[in-house]
Amino acid sequence: MSVSRPRTILMFTATIAATAVMVAGCASSNQPEPATDGSGGTLRVGLAAPPTSLDPANMEQSTSPFAQPAYDALIRVDEDGTLTPGLATEWGFTDDENRVFEITLRDDVTFSDGAELDADAVIANLEHLDTGNSNVVSLVNGGEYTKVDDETVRIEWDSPHPLAPQAFTQRWVAGMMASPDALGNDPGSLATQTAGAGPYVLDATQTIAGSEYVYTARDDYWDAERQYWDEIVITVMENPDQRLNALRVGEIDYAVGDLSTADSAEADGLQVLHAPTIVYGLSLLDRDGELGSPLEDLRVRQAINHALDREGIAEALLGDYGFPTEQVVVPSEPGYLTSHEGYYEYDQDLARELLADAGYPDGFDLPVIASTTATAAQFAQIYAAQLAEVGITLELDTRPGPDYFEAMTGGTFPAAGIGYGSQPVPMEYDGLFGPDAAFNPLGVTSETVQKTLAEAAAMPQDEAVTLYEQIMTEIVEDAWYAPVAFAPQFYYASDAIAPAAVTDARPQVPLAELRPAG
């Protein structure tokens, strides 16, 4: 099941594709088969890389599947993006500027160590998140936390936090609640153990850190109807061919996939789940000319955009799995501009003309930091080939995962090849294009964008759409990026798993929500 997209869309955003690690699950031929009544059995999951910590406050969002079996979130997000009750029954802002947020909790929830969920427990989690190093802590941290009563917590921030409801869902680790007893007695233990209010608990005696993680069902889970398995086993399998082969022979039944194996998985009759949400392209970082590159000139940035054949690249590399793009949010996200679809038509003659007008009739050399991840590397080679046709030579410096990220955020490269998962505009401001964003190491920004975002953040989000569109208009027309195409993160499921679906509102099925077939 997939998300269809108009082939004419052109857009872009940023999140390292190399770190876009998602989960997979399965039932092994050597393990108990899933029960046909929708419960019981073993779900076996394959992941591409292990987490650095099992503590949600210290976990990268990309490795959240390792926390999903054990940690329920305050709010759930459904397939269509609708927010529904989780550990919280009610939530919302109580002011007019998105600075005061209240959460009302269930009164029948316990953690796996027996502690109770109440206002004190949530405050302990928020305070713990303030000290954490997760890449999503900025979504909700830094507030003043008040216990209104046993079931109600009030959060007050100095600045607007309009996306707090989304941040507290299971898609983002900020909403995952841990036992207050564990946080108070030994918070360090959460790096290798779990103490959540979710349907499972990590069995440390069977777990091999970095290799295999075993979760067993709790007998006191508060929402037993949503507890679909007796056991979940996550195995780290770095090689995508290894994961596909494991699916073929029945060792696993659900696995994270990738572009290189998607067609084979389709041919094997597997469920291939994909929602194109990761944008690949060039980030034109040195727009102020701090590093002395030609990117300071708008005409040069526009020339780069016109020199790229987005539709051809998307068709060649992604086929039906993706679509060309020029913007920084997916079409379903507030701020997307239908008016700017196709804004940079593929026109190499125009690109050469713009370069000549800017004083570069013979082109120039441009150092670019790029990732060695398979999909990102393929895109980078095509950027280089097409830009060479108009005289721009990309000096690609390709590095693996952490080395790439360190170099990209170091502020020494004028441009970077990136893959970034689409997010709501305020999140992208924090991570992608704001002055303090990790993916904007030179801090290049615009006063107009800053002021507009600040105004939008303090408004009801359904009223802020026009302002988000103004921000996206400036980013596209001022050529902050040269985005090329949106691609998905793939998931494969065998017929042992009930039919599942992903969307750009929820591009990954939460692990604990996968069900056995039958």
Automatic annotation (TrEMBL):
Signal peptide span: 1-23
Classification via InterPro entries: Peptide/Ni-bd, SBP_5, SBP_5_dom
PROSITE patterns found in the cross-reference section: PROKAR_LIPOPROTEIN
Positions of the UniProt region annotated as Disordered: 28-51
Key words of the record: Signal, Transport
Domain of life, source organism: Bacteria
Presence of the UniProt keyword Ligase in the record: no
Tagged with keyword Transport: yes
Domain Solute-binding protein family, residue spans: 83-426
Family the UniProt entry places it in: Belongs to the bacterial solute-binding protein 5 family.
Protein name per its UniProtKB record: ABC transporter substrate-binding protein
